[in-house]
Structure formats: C-alpha cells, structure tokens
Amino acid sequence: MKKFINHVDQVLHESLSGLQAAHADILTVHFDPTFVRRTAPRPGKVALISGGGTGHEPLHAGFVGKGMLDAACTGQVFTSPTPDQMLAAAESVHTGAGVLFIVKNYAGDSMNFQMASEMLDIENAIVMVNDDVAVQNSTHTTGRRGVAGTLVVEKIVGAAAETGLDLAQCKAVGDRVNRATASMGVAFTSCTVPAAGRATFDIDDDEMEFGVGIHGEPGRRREPVRPAQAIVDELLDCILTDLNPAPGANVLLHVNGFGATPLMELYLLHHCAGKTLAARGVNVVRSLVGNYTTALDMAGASLTVTLMDPELLQLWDAPVRTASLNWS
Amino acid sequence: MKKFINHVDQVLHESLSGLQAAHADILTVHFDPTFVRRTAPRPGKVALISGGGTGHEPLHAGFVGKGMLDAACTGQVFTSPTPDQMLAAAESVHTGAGVLFIVKNYAGDSMNFQMASEMLDIENAIVMVNDDVAVQNSTHTTGRRGVAGTLVVEKIVGAAAETGLDLAQCKAVGDRVNRATASMGVAFTSCTVPAAGRATFDIDDDEMEFGVGIHGEPGRRREPVRPAQAIVDELLDCILTDLNPAPGANVLLHVNGFGATPLMELYLLHHCAGKTLAARGVNVVRSLVGNYTTALDMAGASLTVTLMDPELLQLWDAPVRTASLNWS
C-alpha cells in the first residue's frame, strides 16, 4: 500500500486537521466526538446534517458551508459515524428550526442516524437517499444504495433551507429530489482502505465491475471493459428506465469520478451521455463533472441524472460556498 | 489499459466536446485549430493565453473564464500545441490591449509559443513558468520545469489583467509570481498515456519517485515510500531553500494531487506542511488543496509555496469564474 499517511490510526484526525486549516473561513472541525460544522450557522434556518464513513471525499465534509450542509459527521474510512457524533453535531449547529439528517442508505448509517434521530431532543427528520439503480439489495444495504445523487440532494435541500423553508418542507424537497434522481457506475480498479492495507477486491486487467458501489461492493456483473459510449448507453438505459422521464424532460447530468479517473475521461463521458440523452429526447440543462463522491483511489465513474423542474433548478443555481462546491 | 475512451484518436475531441457542453456559460471550444476560449472576452483587457499538452486537467482549459485565462491551447496528451493554435487563439480573444502567453517551461511548449510570439501581428509577451525545484534540466527541459505553480501565475495575472494593468505590467506581475513560487512533488505510480497504452514508467510496490515531473519524468531519485511527514519535510526543505523566505513571511500553500490521490491524503499533506511551515516561521495565509495540475492517472502529489505580499494576496482573492476554480 502506497499512501500519504503517517500512522493508519491518525489518518482521519490529520486529514480533518488539514481540511480545517485550509478552509478556516468556512468550517470548523470538532474532535471527540468528531464532526465538521459550518463556522457560522444561520439563526432560524433548518440545520442540515449529513455524514457517513470517510473515503468518499469531498462528500460530505467538503459540502459544509453556506447553501449546503451545517454539519457532517465523519466516521472512519467506509465506517458509519456513531450516534454520539450526530447528537453533538445537532446540538452544535441547530438554531431552533429543527434538524434534518440526510443519510445515504447503508445498514450502519441508517441504524445510527435513526438512533440519533430518536435520542435527539430537538425536532428532526431524516431524508434517506437511495439513488443507485444498480442493485436492489447489496453487501451493506437493504434496499438501494445511496451514492453520488446524495450531493444533489444536499445542494438542493441546502438552498431550500436558506430560503426559510421549515423542517417538513425541507424534508419534502429532499424526498422529492431523491425520487427524481438515479445513479449507476462502473469500476476499473479496486480501492485500498488504509487500515486494510490491500485492495478491497481483485479485478483483471481487462475487466470492469458494472454497477459497482462506492465502497467497491459488487454491482450487477463483472465483464470485459467496453468503449465509453457502450458503457454510458447501458448506464443511462438503467437510469432512464428507473426515472421514466417525460419527452422533453429537463435534467441535471452529474458525471462523478470515483477518485482515480482523469477529468479528461469524465468530460468524455459527459459528451457520450449528452449525445445519448439528446437522442432520447432528454435535455441536459445543468451539468456537474468531477470527483465528488469517491471511493478512495478507485478508478471508475458514475452517472447521475436528476429530473429538474423550475423550483429545483432555482435551488440548484442558488449560491453555495463550501470547500468543494462553490458558486454565486 | 482501462480508460473511458472510444477511440484513442478521438479522446481529445470528445473530451473537449464534453467540457464545452458542461460549461457553455463560461467557455467555447474551437476545433481545427483547437483552442478553448472565454465566451465573452473583456474589451480593453490584456488577453491571457496559456496551453500545453493535455493530460494535466483541469490545467489549462479548466481555468479559462473571468478572472483567469482568455484562451487555452490544447495539444494532444503530453504534446505541445502548435503555433497555428496559438495564433488562432490570439486572433480570437485579443481586444486591442495585447496578448500575454503564459507558458510552462518545456522544450516543445517553449519553442512553439516563442514561434507564435514572433509570428503574431499583435503586441505580445511571454511569461515562462519554471517553478519545479526538483531538477535543473530534465527529459523535456532545459532549465527547471513548469508545474503546479502555473495555476498560481494564471490566477494572479488573470486578476491583474481584469484590474486594467497593461501588457508590460501583467508580464511583470507574472514574472514576479513565478520568482516567488517553488514546487516539488513525488509519485507513487506511473501514468498511462492513451496512445501508448501502457505505463510511462515502472515502479515497485514500495517505491516512490522523489521530485517527479508532471509527465512522469524522473526526479531526483527512486526510493522506498516514507511517512507523509518525512516526505513533506524534504519537499519543503527544497522549496524553502529556493525561496529563502524572510522570518514571518506570508505564503500561499498549494497541495496538488497528480490525479489518483484521494483528497483525504491531500488534506493530510496540508496538515503536515502547515506544521512544518509554522515551525520554520512561515505563515500560511491562503491554501488550495486538490487535483489541479495532474498527470493523467498518476498517484502522487506536489507542494507549491508562493511568497505573498498584500498586492498578490488581493489579486489571489479577486473573483474568478472558470470550470475548475470558482470564487467570488
């Protein structure tokens, strides 16, 4: 294993310390229990809290800040954070309008956030994200997995909360975005968890994992690598079958790299996906291309499509200022 | 070779088409000759043009837009663009205040931009960037290489041009930033050029290339991987020996990933570098962490330090709106 680390036990602490130092104007890191919080939560706004295992950076800590999350609870690599982190984060950032937890659907995250939700003495609700159409149940999941579409939920609900929507309304927006979002990806290589010290899975030099999860979990099948256009076409087939867009539907297209795929290839995927969506009568009205929901050093990528309406479009376009998503 | 491509010959065209589709509000791609231009150049402003081989994305095309570059000339992967691209880009974006070429110091780029500079019938100048302190001459270079510090030059000169500085003043700012900037990096893995189809170099499972270039060129030596803090300390030793900062100097610290290194590790490097710089009496007043000057799918990272003064700080902080660097 070749990684920039000092001791395996210190990876999370040192990485979060660097995040804090690099973005002191946006976020503050709290240790023991560990969470990343917006430096200046806005009074009277619903507090948005997400989190999960680390190793998916910039998700979620890179999305803490104005227009997006109020806090992110960070577990060890690929390991759910615990309820004490969620409770401490909620106490730290809530300002009286309640707390909305945005949770990726994995067994550990789901259980821990549910527990925190029940224990928390503040009005709260959960949006469960399950955008991955690859598999129905998987290694770590009952039901579909939450993957790169989580960013879309966090961005749009983040903007909704800034406009003053209340807890129930924010939850409704989040659930609506989740239903309007579908994702699926492929992996060319495995990833290496620092504490494990070796690749999560083996894969041949000419193979890809079709429908892979963001922890390297199996997808639908293992098969030889195909040209980019063929990969994109099958991913979009699965995604559009799930979303069933009306003719002329407007969508957000998010091409997400899993960590080790060059940006050059991600833009090439966007080109292929744009052609296919146009041919199927779907309009790409917004795009996001980059490594946002990663699996450490995995080579691969996913496509996410969100059906947009004027309200969601306005919320997507609203200003955001975080470490890794920033526009005005 | 596992990559998201259709045909090796079409990689650049399809990738640039995706870039254009994803960022139509910011940039326009011109083909034959190929360059990426700001959609709306600002009349009366010095036109800034950079470029080089592709494979380093987001550098340079991802930095075209308000507050940074007016155009980027894109060669094939790791191959210099040609003078006809530079001339066409200059004709396309100049608005009467002259053209400043920002060029990384490699033999091909230097020769081609010099040729374009001489052929161009518009007042122009060149800023040559050579921030890499690893080696004096190298595989593709006479003199030091231009690496991740190029982003710093492009950002600061971009802001200077927006304030109305003339061509000579913009060149002076660029030369000054280049002199105030030093970089050095290490690689854990090679990269794979699509047209070559195999790794650029071989490296053992426990080795790193210390002082690597952004095309996988050799650095100072091959050696066993060391803890992150030890790597950072030696990189900073080389960088600070070159810059010789005064006690209490203010600096920008840019931690750059070469493409396949997780953001988690880049922030960990920032933490290590921050500790060492503090111990040496250097203040980190601005930070940039991420994969900005890449070498395709190479795992590794570089550190860049720029000595900042109040003028440079103001220019660094000025608004920028490009595909990959965006703040207000």
Which pair of protein chains has the largest interface, and what are the residue counts? A-B, 63 and 63 residues
Q: CA-to-CA gap between the ends of chain A?
A: 40 Å
Count of discrete domains of chain A: 2
Give the oligomeric state.
Answer: homodimer
Mean pLDDT of chain A: 97
Largest sheet of chain A: 6 strands, mixed
Describe this protein's structure.
The structure is a homodimer of 328-residue chains. With 328 residues, the first copy, chain A, is of the alpha/beta class. Chain A has 2 domains: 8-180, Dihydroxyacetone kinase, domain 1 (Rossmann fold, 3-Layer(aba) Sandwich), CATH 3.40.50; 181-317, Hypothetical Protein Tm841, Chain: A,domain 3 (2-Layer Sandwich), CATH 3.30.1180.20. The first copy, chain A, has helices at residues 11-22, 83-93, 107-119, 149-162, 167-179, 228-243, 263-279, 310-317; strands at residues 27-30, 35-38, 47-54, 65-66, 71-77, 99-104, 124-129, 181-187, 207-210, 221-224, 250-257, 283-290, 300-307, 320-322, 326-327. In chain A, the strands form 3 sheets. Chain A has a 6-stranded mixed sheet, with helices on both faces. In chain A, strands 10-9-8-13-11-12 form a 6-stranded mixed sheet. In chain A, strands 4-14-15 form a 3-stranded antiparallel sheet. In chain A, α2 packs across α3 and α4 runs antiparallel to α5 (167-179). Chain A is globular and about 50 Å long. Chains A, B: Residues 7-327 form the DhaK domain. Chains A, B: Keywords: Transferase.
